[in-house]
């Protein structure tokens, strides 16, 4: 049946032309998540403490702390996860043995302090050599890198010297690690990010690296990134001035809080000022493909048993709070924080898995006529399950059994743009 129409091809072409700039903006500035794995945490250690066996030592130290508390199931019970203790204990024990650290940052900034140029130069070179050794030996975490000193005038040259020695030494040792991460701290202006982009370009050119190979995280530790002197929001602007090189924004709990003159006793990841900053960050990165990380708590589970238990409860609660607010990554500062990082993270995914799996099964196979999820909701459900799989909270067998889908199928559902690009590439190859 042919109905009456008013518009012709010229009209469609006119609208396409009017929206060409919008189409280009959405494609370039808002490509969406790239579907790669995001670690659940970043562990910070002073740069000179790292060697290739550090991850295993931290895993052993974490397991010993749990054992002293009566075992993983007992710890789960103590921090309020007793209803899942039997499920969580074997998964967390396996994680601490297999992959205790997902993302490790060798710290040349606050955690390292101010030392002589000769000492820091030597440590930067040694850090690169040890990272290369760990990667070659298979003991490096999936993600590893350094945090160097910031680009403010007093520390700028020192930070760049350390970055130069680390990257140059690592490149000389062979291929850069796939999970290499560089962290630029205490950013206050978009110009500092643009300067980091320029440095990355020079490293790539002079070291023979593929253009675009070097990316970096921005630590959001200053209020000037939330509201600039001219009233703009630099944290959003910098993402689009970095030529795709910013991989993540990390919230810095204590520097940011101190900048707002919040008393030390009240500096926290859950302070209203922190929530405001993180909400601005969250809106800024939406659909850009840039990841988010929450900060840390400096209450460490060491010392007398009551303090240890209180610190574990606090850490687990803060981890869960971040996850519920869409921050899937956070900082850890001590081996004894690893058990509660994984207990709280795994509980988050396991508690939500049954409902997510049921809805995914219905969306994919029409198993429940009482639920009609939108495609956007299905994508969110798939991302939730894929994240749980990647960190070890869920197993492939239980995901297959409950959703009727493979991890690859769920990944395609979670990231349809990537699936479309892959299909286009395959078709192009078949036709060539």
Q: What labels describe this entry?
A:
alpha/beta, 8 strands, globular, TIM Barrel, 432 residues, 17 helices, 9% strand, 54% helix, 8-stranded parallel β-sheet
- Helix and strand sequence: HHEHHHEHEHEHEHEHHEHEHHHHH
Look at the structure and name the CATH superfamily of the domain at 41-336.
Answer: Phosphoenolpyruvate-binding domains
The CATH architecture name of the domain at 41-336 reads Alpha-Beta Barrel
Low-confidence stretches: none
CATH class label of the domain at 41-336: Alpha Beta
Radius of gyration (CA) equals: 23 Å
Quote the CATH topology of the domain at 41-336. Answer: TIM Barrel
**Ends apart, CA distance between termini:** 38 Å
| Dominant shape | globular
Number of helices: 17
Strand content: 5-15%
Please provide the count of β strands.
Answer: 8
Mean pLDDT over the full residue set: 94
- What's the story with the biggest beta sheet? 8 strands, parallel
Main β-sheet, spatial strand arrangement? 7-6-5-4-3-2-1-8
* Helix content bin: 40-55%
Q: Specify the oligomeric state.
A: single chain
The class by helix and strand makeup works out as alpha/beta
């Amino acid at each position: 049946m042919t109905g009456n129409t008013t518009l012709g091809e010229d009209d469609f072409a006119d609208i396409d032309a009017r929206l060409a700039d919008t189409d280009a903006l959405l494609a370039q500035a808002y490509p969406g998540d790239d579907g790669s794995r995001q670690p659940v945490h970043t562990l910070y250690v002073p740069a000179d403490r790292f060697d290739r066996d550090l991850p295993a030592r931290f895993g052993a130290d974490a397991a010993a702390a749990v054992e002293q508390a009566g075992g993983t199931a007992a710890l789960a019970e103590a921090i309020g996860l007793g209803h899942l203790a039997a499920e969580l204990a074997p998964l967390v024990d396996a994680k601490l043995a297999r992959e205790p650290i997902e993302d490790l940052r060798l710290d040349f900034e606050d955690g390292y302090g101010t030392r002589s140029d000769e000492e820091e130069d030597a440590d930067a070179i040694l850090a690169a050599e040890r990272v290369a050794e760990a990667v070659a030996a298979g003991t490096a975490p999936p993600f590893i890198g350094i945090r160097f000193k910031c680009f403010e005038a007093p520390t700028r040259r020192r930070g760049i010297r350390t970055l130069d020695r680390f990257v140059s030494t690592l490149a000389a040792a062979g291929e850069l690690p796939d999970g290499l991460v560089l962290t630029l701290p205490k950013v206050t202006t978009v110009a500092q990010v643009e300067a980091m982009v320029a440095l990355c370009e020079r490293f790539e050119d002079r070291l023979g690296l593929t253009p675009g190979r070097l990316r970096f995280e921005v630590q959001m530790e200053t209020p000037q990134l939330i509201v600039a002197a001219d009233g703009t929001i630099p944290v959003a602007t910098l993402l689009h001035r970095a030529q795709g090189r910013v991989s993540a924004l990390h919230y810095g709990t204590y520097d940011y809080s101190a900048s707002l003159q919040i008393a030390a006793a009240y500096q926290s990841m859950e302070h209203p000022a922190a929530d405001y900053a993180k909400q601005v960050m969250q809106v800024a990165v939406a659909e850009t493909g840039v990841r988010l990380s929450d900060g840390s708590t400096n209450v460490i589970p060491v010392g007398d048993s009551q303090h240890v238990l209180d610190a574990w409860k606090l850490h687990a609660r803060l981890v869960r709070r971040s996850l519920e607010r869409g921050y899937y990554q956070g900082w850890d500062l001590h081996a004894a924080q690893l058990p509660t990082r994984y207990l709280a993270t795994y509980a988050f995914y396991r508690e939500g898995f049954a409902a997510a799996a049921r809805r995914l099964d219905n969306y994919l196979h029409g198993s429940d006529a009482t639920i009609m999820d939108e495609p956007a909701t299905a994508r969110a459900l798939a991302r939730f399950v894929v994240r749980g799989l990647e960190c070890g909270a869920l197993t492939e067998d239980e995901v297959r059994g409950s959703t009727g889908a493979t991890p690859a199928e769920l990944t395609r559902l979670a990231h349809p743009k990537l699936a479309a690009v892959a299909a286009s590439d395959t078709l192009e190859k078949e036709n060539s």
